[in-house]
Write a structure and sequence with these properties.
This protein is mainly beta. It has a single domain (24-159), classed as Jelly Rolls (Sandwich). It has one helix at residues 2-18, and strands at residues 23-30, 34-36, 41-45, 53-62, 70-78, 84-92, 109-120, 127-133, 146-148, 150-159. The strands form three sheets. Strands 1-10-4-7 form a four-stranded antiparallel β-sheet, with no helix packed on it. Strands 3-8-5-6 form a four-stranded antiparallel β-sheet, with no helix packed on it. A two-stranded antiparallel sheet has the order 2-9. The protein starts with a helix and ends with a strand. Residues 12-17 have low confidence and may be disordered.
Length: 162
């Protein structure tokens, strides 16, 4: 009898943690070894609701090989009608003591980074999101060619709760 209760509890926990009713789009791409400044991670998004307000996130998985306290990204969104929005974003990746921010019990930390809030995808067609890093060392104009410690880059769209 105890074994069946354990199975039911385990199944219930899996259902609770795997259900994500706000998720519309959530895709990751693996970064091989290092993330080159010229490597653009691209996501193609189709068949979006043209009425629902959405929140957009850049998701990032990194290891302790990531040695910076912040992260600069260039995120470009191309709309079906040809319009393009390009943003340069900065995110805090480590606490003042150097401990990496994010969730995860292992050496890999996952960060859900705000991109845009309350977006309505009011055009029908394919949207393309491109993400690349724009890291530089303090006082240097030249960018970091190969960023270590980033293992996956993702893009997430959720229904806005507002």
């Amino acid at each position: 009898m105890q074994k069946s209760n354990l199975v039911i509890l385990l199944f219930s926990l899996i259902c609770v943690f795997s259900c994500d009713s706000n998720r519309i789009f959530d895709v990751y791409q693996t970064v091989p070894n290092v993330w080159s400044k010229d490597d653009i991670v691209e996501f193609k998004i189709n068949q979006l609701d043209t009425i629902t307000r959405c929140n957009l996130f850049v998701n990032l998985r990194n290891t302790k090989k990531y040695k910076y306290s912040n992260l600069f990204l260039i995120v470009e969104m191309n709309f079906p009608n040809g319009k393009t929005i390009k943003d340069t974003l900065e995110y805090r990746m480590a606490a003042p003591d150097g401990a990496l921010l994010g969730t995860g019990l292992s050496s890999v930390k996952e960060n859900k980074l705000w991109y845009k809030e309350g977006v309505v995808f009011d055009e029908i067609g394919e949207y393309t999101v491109r993400i690349q890093h724009a890291m530089r060392k303090n006082g240097s104009v030249k960018g970091i060619l190969n960023l270590e410690g980033v293992t996956d880059v993702g893009f997430r769209i959720e229904k806005s709760l507002k």
